[in-house]
Amino acid sequence: MSLLHHYHLEKLTDIHSKLLGRDTVVDIFLPFQYEKGHKHYPLLMLNDGQDSETIQLKQTLEKLTLTKEIEDIIVVAVHAGDRMQEYGVANKADYKKRGARAKNYTKFIITELIPYLHYRYSISQKQQDHAYAGFSLGGLSALDIAWHHSEYFGKVGAFSGSFWWRQRDTKSRFYSEYRDRIMHQQIRRGKFKEGMKFWFQAGLKDEHSDRDKNGVIDSIDDTLDLIVELTKKGYRPFHDIQYLEMKNGEHNLKTWAEAMPYFLRWAFGK
Hints:
Layout: E1 7-17, E2 22-31, E3 43-46, H1 57-66, E4 74-78, H2 83-86, H3 102-120, E5 130-135, H4 137-148, E6 155-159, H5 177-180, H6 182-189, E7 197-205, H7 218-233, E8 241-250, H8 253-268
Helix pairs in contact: 1-8, 6-7
């Protein structure tokens, strides 16, 4: 591969977050010949940045840049701290009190990290040039953050998103699919946000669980039901919403690595 398409990795380990009460680790992938002030690049924020190597993010970026399928972008991959508490939905913990620090994590991204990134790197100011993505719980978190900060994020990608996240245990006799899935409820009660686009991936082997016994696994049901809620809000399938269903897709990094080029072409395709 020619040097022209190499991405350069910078690791930031010195960012102490007051909001999270811990030091954070962030991987920054910069395109070859990146120069501050030379041009302003689109930005991809990624949860679970510690998995960047396993999903071969750098190689995928280089390959798609080499074949001119995507433009040069800056990727900011944030390593997870306490996933079960920092990822989730900022406005509401789930029925096991998980996601209790999601509000702090959101504030860290929006008020601490992003201003610092704009100060240190040449990042585009345009909403349509900013995407947020994540895997599983990180996908739930990415959608939650982008949805509440649509003035900044124009695109969001959820790989096997944990959209089962609920406020009541399914074993409860009061449990209701309609009422208790937190993200679905949030979209339903929210307003249409101008310029937002959504990308979802799910695998037919994501899990075995089938709560409503309809022959379709929950992760697919939860994702498709969420797409229905977005459609009711006025977002158009194929135009504003893309859905990738992978026949052999499992709930793991190998599957998400395979799905990554599809997402990158959708979000940053030339």
